[in-house]
Amino acid sequence: MSLIYLVRHGETNHNAEARGLGRADVPLSPLGIQQAAALARRFERVPLDEIATSPLQRALAVARAIAAPHGLPVEILPELTELDVGITEGLTYPEIRQRFPEFFAAWSGDDPTSVCMPGGESLADLAARLEPLAADLIHGPERVLVIVSHNFTLRVLVCLLLGIPIVNFRNFRLDLASITTISIQHRRAAIQALNDTSHLESTLNLAGPARSVST
Questions:
Q1: Degrees (nearest 5) of the Cα angle 32, 36, 42?
Q2: Is the distance from CB of 150 to CB of 59 less than 8 angstroms?
């Protein structure tokens, strides 16, 4: 049986300010650095075979923190990069609604999977680049693997692993620095834990109100 730990990166200033975040390569905030340390402690005694990450520094910093106690290399996978949000990068939701009303209406509809971000990707585009990775996780060798990535990327990957339509990405949330655990046995994926943030209790005094917006 394989165990796949899907880890969302820690907080950035974009997240704290509720601004959209896609390919912009911004660092972790002070709270995000604390969250990375909490994630490292959470995995310190978990036997791991591999650690893979998005190339963006907010994910890479978390992956390196987790890898350090294990002496493991970090594999950078471009397909784990966040959805390209195009010219909505850095905008708040009210700003997006005001500047791109037709896009916002389509994105807010029942099935936004083929709706392209203005100047960027659609969820269908994101799924297409993640499909080979999902197939490798399902059909590849047994392993214990940590994957550090982003909001939309991880939610679409969960849908692909479970074999459900990607429109279901809205039916669950993955908070900043959360862990979602998926087991794979006999080429079938099952959720063992979803959006686990119990390891972040030591960071709550720094966090203030809950922050989970943006990517």
A1: 140
A2: yes
Q: How far apart are CA 128 and CA 102, in angstroms?
A: 25
- Report the C-alpha gap between 165 and 180 in whole angstroms: 19
Please state, in angstroms and rounded to a whole number, the distance separating the CA atoms of residues 75 and 68: 13
User: How distant, in Å, are the alpha carbons of 59, 64, 71, 102, 198 from that of 51?
Assistant: 11, 9, 11, 40, 21
Q: Closest Cα partner for 58 from 120, 134, 7?
A: 7
Let me know how long the chain is: 215
pLDDT in tens, 138-169: 999 999 999 999 999 999 999 999 999 999 99
The DSSP string of 105-171 is HHHTSS--TTPPPTTS--HHHHHHHHHHHHHHHHHS---EEEEEE-HHHHHHHHHHHHT--GGGGGG
The pLDDT tens digits for 7-29 are 999 999 999 999 999 999 999 99
Beta bridge partners of 56: none
